[in-house]
Amino acid sequence: MAYELIFGADLLPLLLLGGVVGVLGGLALGLMISITPQLERGGYTPKQMGVIGTILLFLGFFLQAIPYVAKLFVL
Predict the structure, then answer these.
(1) Any idea what the Cα angle at residue 68 is, between residues 24 and 26, rounded to 5°?
(2) What is the pTM (predicted TM-score) of this model?
């Protein structure tokens, strides 16, 4: 088949990697999207905004690291 010429015979691990990346990325993005409207309404103290900003920063790091971590465990 065509995928064997492109990827070799390892289609299943590639599909699993894509699934893991898609699910984890979707969860992290959904969490970030759900937090954003609450931040726009305001009413937070500067200390609370700092904590929320730190959480969003680490979520961004996590979102960028998902493909590399998933590749370590799937392939």
Answers:
(1) 15
(2) 0.54
Mean pLDDT across the stretch 54-64? 86
CA distances from 70 to 2, 33, 35, 40 (A): 25, 23, 25, 33
Q: Could you tell me how far CA 49 lies from the centroid of its own chain? A: 22
Q: Which two tokens stand for residue 4?
A: 């064997």
Report phi then psi at 43, rounded to 5.
Answer: 90, 15
Place of tokens 């409207």: 37
pLDDT value for 54: 93
Residue with tokens 């979520």: 59
Which residue has better confidence, 65 or 12?
Answer: 65
